[in-house]
Specification:
heterotrimer, A: 277 residues, 12 helices, globular, C: mainly alpha, MetI-like fold, 73% helix
């Protein structure tokens, strides 16, 4: 809201707050960047970056993070899109319950989630209330652990992904689109693939990017479940080295900026926050 | 002595001229409407009176006091907004009393005034309600009360009824007019709805593209429009191109059909192209009574509109609408019939093309 | 004539209610496996003692054991401080780019950056602040060499409550900005004009109209900030290495190595956290509802 054109005073205090804010946000980034450039004594250079990117552990953990992010995004989409669609079309009664569920991750921070997951899945799976075992604890298997962590990541990303998809569907009014398509003779497959999905592309992309940002930076689930992703790697690196972590930190920042910038571009202005870790 | 006066007021946004050469004198207690389509500058002018826009040139004065550069909070004009603009965090009573409390009036004076206002708008029971609990029409009445509570010199209303349903609009505009009359307060009313303006104003200022087209009473504006725009904007109108045949006798020819008009054509000469207009209700069937113009026509279409029957006739090669009051015992012609219609020479308006 | 109308069963018809619920089974299954089961397990565990019987002991210990109670208090303190500080300054930032009159380009830059900064939390954020305010950090050094002020000598320590709070602000400010920007947009221009028209000046407008209208959103946002800080783990761990015993760090230690020798106590601690977060979320929802009702 801009004041009516009557008086154009110079917004002094606004500039004060804004500049203070800029200072606060920029200084740490500057400090990190400056530090990352001083690996070689008395010289400004990108040696820290070179060394960081030369480390094959970096690539394996970062790559693994990306892989897990991709899995999370794909499974999330497969789970959430049909659910949101179904609720809009056939089951509005479930809406409140489902929305409540998507709020639960806000009440269950990562540390609690991983605690619960470990409690449940690191003991042998039994038929409830008995001691009869059905299978080995999931955490005994690498595949099992991966399933766990993808599930955990899906939980963390659930509020944002669901809300994004749901809003996208509401904006294009999928119910009317579906009826229009059906009256023209389209079967379900065509409706979903050629009418619904293309129209919620923006929402999907936005949700996917946010999930990506969450997963790649995530450290709690990964370290407690013993999965070798980028988060724990960066933390460990910080225990032993000084310059490479700074270089990677700055790179992480640039990556996150890129992801958010893309979201901003495609959604035209709705910022998205994923909160503290 | 004018109560509210605008002299040579204009407003420029860069190159764009939103308002130009605006001159108006309003008497105390007068109800004046600014009427025109979107973008004609009526709201801008109103906002200059309120103080939310600064004129690029010209003077605004109330009671001979120059207020052109005064801050909006210092002008003592009351404004009613299109979107009501009631403060959502305050009750109706608190909204109405807001201006008085700002002026630090004693609390019991405020309470009394608020009660007066609530009675004026017939919402005595709603004092403790919040805006969101009220209907649109009720909210607008509260907005009116809020503006009137401070005893302003001038009341400004910016399309106050546009957001409301048609039925409420009609009821509320009458109520606004009644209150204004009762309080004797000078009022400026902006609207794009010509029926609204015609029904409640003492005078109407018709505006188009930033300029005043015509100022006059509703009767004058409707029956004696001075420009093409006013003629077309206010009421329905039949209009066609014509050529002057005899300027002394007021004869014009449209499609070869001759019309006589009482308008002054001395400024034109034979052969000049003009625009000729006749209001639909000024036509009647020649079989009832012959007036100055008797025209042969063919019946093209008959539309029953309720109280009015609209008959489309073809004169020459041009279609005209003729409106006549519904009369269950009148025999209407059939489509395709040949007939004669008539109108007086005063009914034929000749305006420059 | 070709049959263009579809058979009735294709269109929306009232099917038996039960069949309709089939479509949401996968989602509920996921929720059960990954949300409800873990939560219920923790919940039940907190009421169980070592012998497997029902008990309130664990809950009592939450209050009676000093170190647990103090952990909660510390977490609440840091969450409250960063919620308040983050709330105030975040509001001022949001104000400056909306009502405050700064150019629109700055507004989108701030909103985008806020999205970035709030995702930057965790290990990278901790490292960045070490590089800034650590013993040899950029700002520390500049203050010393340029202004002659040695903050560490004066008692400042990044790895402390103050340091952690400063670090938390990096995602608290942005979150406040993201929530308050739309709320400030919701301040209709007409309210300001109506107030002016009735004789109010800027201060009166803000005190009597704008701030009261914004208050539910602001409080709701600050509650959100509270919950945000309360549940944070990685930033604190990466920065202070567990030295600052906030409740999340305690729980983390418990998950790692059962330091309490009573796994059910850990469950209780976790449930205590969830309880506090749930109250926060409820408070936030209630305030949201109130705002929406007013501003219909």
């Amino acid at each position: 809201m801009k004041l009516a054109t009557r008086v154009r005073k110079f917004p002094f205090w606004s500039w004060v707050w804004f500049i203070l804010g800029v200072l606060y946000f920029v200084l740490p980034l500057l400090a990190t960047f400056e530090f990352s450039l001083t690996m070689e004594r008395d010289m400004i250079g990108f040696k820290a970056y070179q060394k960081a990117f030369a480390d094959k552990d970096f690539w394996s953990t970062f790559g693994y993070s990306i892989f897990l992010a991709a899995m999370t995004i794909i499974v999330s989409i497969i789970l959430i899109v049909p659910t949101a669609y179904w609720i809009r079309l056939r089951l509005p009664e479930a809406r409140r319950l489902v929305e409540f569920i998507t709020l639960l991750p806000f009440v269950i921070p990562a540390i609690i989630l991983v605690f619960g997951l470990i409690r449940v899945y690191s003991s042998p799976v039994t038929i409830p209330f008995t001691e009869i075992p059905l299978g080995q604890p999931l955490t005994n298997f690498k595949f099992g652990t991966n399933v766990l962590i993808v599930g955990g990541y899906m939980v963390l990303g659930l509020p944002y992904m669901y809300r994004s998809v749901d809003t996208g569907m509401r904006t294009v009014d999928v119910r009317t689109l579906t009826e229009a398509a059906q009256s023209l003779g389209a079967n379900w497959y065509v409706v979903v693939a050629r009418v619904i999905l293309p129209n919620i592309r923006t929402a999907l992309l936005s949700g996917a990017l946010l999930t990506f940002a969450i997963v790649v930076g995530e450290v709690v689930l990964a370290s407690f479940l013993g999965v070798n992703t980028f988060g724990p790697y960066l933390f460990l690196l910080g225990q032993h080295r000084a310059y490479e972590p700074a270089a990677l930190t700055f790179t992480t920042f640039l990556l996150t900026w890129a992801a958010m910038g893309i979201i901003q571009l495609i959604t035209g202005g709705q910022g998205q926050a994923s909160g503290a870790h | 002595m004018a109560h509210l006066a605008l002299s040579n007021v204009s407003k420029l946004y860069g190159d764009f001229s939103a308002v130009s050469d605006f001159n108006l004198e309003v008497e105390k207690g007068e109800f004046v409407s600014f009427l025109g389509p979107s973008g004609c500058g009526k709201t801008t002018t109103l906002r200059m009176i309120a103080g939310f826009e600064l004129p690029t040139a010209g003077v605004v004065s109330i009671d001979d006091v120059d207020i052109t550069n005064k801050a909006p909070s210092q002008r003592n004009v009351g404004m009613v907004f299109q979107a009501y603009a009631l403060f959502p965090n305050m009750t109706v009573a608190q909204n109405i009393g807001f201006g008085l409390r700002i002026r630090k009036e004693p609390e019991n004076a405020v309470k009394q005034r608020v009660a007066e206002m609530l009675a004026l708008i017939h919402l005595e029971q709603k004092g403790n309600s919040y805006p969101y609990q009220l209907s649109g029409g009720q909210q607008q009445r509260v907005a009116l009360a809020r503006a009137l509570a401070i005893r302003p010199q001038v009341l400004l209303l910016d399309e106050p009824l546009s957001a409301l349903d048609a039925k409420i609009r009609v009821a509320l505009r009458a109520e606004i007019r009644a209150i204004q009359r009762e309080l004797g307060i000078t009022a400026i009313y902006v609207t794009h709805d010509q029926e609204e303006a015609l029904s409640i104003s003492d005078r109407i200022v018709v505006m188009y593209e930033g300029r005043i087209e015509q100022v006059g009473t509703p009767f004058q504006i409707y029956n004696f429009p001075e420009t093409n725009f006013v003629a077309g904007f206010v009421g329905t109108l039949n209009t066609a191109e014509a050529e002057v045949i005899d300027s002394a006798r007021g004869l014009v020819s449209m499609d070869g059909v001759q019309f006589v008009s009482s308008d002054d054509l001395s400024g034109s000469k034979k052969g000049d192209k003009v625009r000729m207009s006749v209001r639909p209700e000024r036509f009647s069937f020649a079989s009832e009574q012959k007036k100055d113009n008797v025209l042969d026509c063919t019946i093209e279409n008959i539309t029953f509109l309720g109280s009015v029957v609209r008959i489309q006739v073809k004169i020459g090669s041009t279609k005209f609408n003729m409106d006549t009051f519904n009369n269950p015992f009148l025999e209407l012609p059939k489509i395709g019939d040949k007939d004669q219609v008539t109108c007086s020479k005063e009914a034929v308006l000749v305006l420059d093309s | 004539m070709t049959q263009t109308a579809l058979p009735a069963s294709r269109m929306r018809t009232p099917r038996s209610k039960l069949r309709n619920w089939i479509g949401v089974i996968p989602f509920f299954l996921f929720a059960i496996l990954f949300i409800f089961l873990p939560s219920v397990r923790l919940f039940i565990g907190s009421f169980t003692n070592e012998a497997g019987q029902f008990t309130f002991e664990n809950l009592v210990e939450l209050f009676s054991q000093d170190y647990i109670r103090n952990s909660y208090l510390l977490s609440i303190q840091i969450s409250a401080v960063t919620a308040l500080g983050g709330g105030i300054f975040g509001f001022l930032l949001a104000y400056s780019v909306t009502v405050g009159g700064l150019p629109n380009s700055l507004r989108s830059a701030l909103v985008t950056f806020s999205g970035v900064a709030s995702n930057f939390a965790g290990v990278p954020l901790a490292f960045a602040f070490v590089a800034t305010l650590g013993r040899t950090g950029f700002v520390t050094v500049v203050l010393k060499e340029v202004f002659g002020v040695s903050i560490y000598d004066a008692g400042f320590n990044l790895y402390s409550f103050l340091g952690l709070s400063l670090t938390y602000m990096y995602f608290q400010f942005p979150l406040m900005v993201l929530v308050m920007t739309p709320a400030l947009d919701g301040l209709k221009k007409e309210w300001r004009e109506a107030a002016e028209n009735l004789g109010a000046n800027t201060v009166q407008y803000w005190l009597r109209i704008a701030l009261p209208i914004l208050l539910p959103s602001m409080l709701g946002a600050m509650i959100l900030l509270f919950g945000n800080a309360f549940g944070a783990y990685a930033t604190a761990y990466a920065l202070t290495g567990g030295r600052l015993p906030i409740i999340t760090i305690q729980i983390g230690a418990q998950v790692r190595g059962d330091v309490l020798h009573n796994p059910n106590l850990g469950n209780a601690m976790a449930m205590g956290m969830v309880f506090i977060m749930a109250i926060s979320l409820a408070g936030y929802s209630w305030l949201q509802g109130k705002t929406e009702r007013w501003l219909r």
